[in-house]
Amino acid sequence: MDGTFRPPEEAGARLIVDLGAIAANWRQLADLAAPAECAAVVKADAYGLGAAQVAPALWDAGARTFFVAQLAEARVLRPLLPDAVIYVLNGLTPGATAIVSELRARPVLGSLPEIGEWQAAGGGEAAIHVDTGMNRLGITLEEAFGVAERYSAGTLGFQPSLIMSHLACADEEAHPLTVRQIADFRKIVAAFGDVPASLANSSATIANPDARFDLCRPGIAVYGGNPVPWRDNPVRPVVRLEGRVVQVRDVPEGQGVGYGAAEMTKRPSRIAIVSVGYADGFLRAGGSSSLRTGAETIVRGQRCPLIGRISMDLLAVDVTDMPLGSVSRGDFACLLGDGITVDEVAGHAGTISYEMLTGLGARYARTYTI
Question: What is the residue range of the signal peptide feature (predicted)?
Answer without folding.
Answer: none
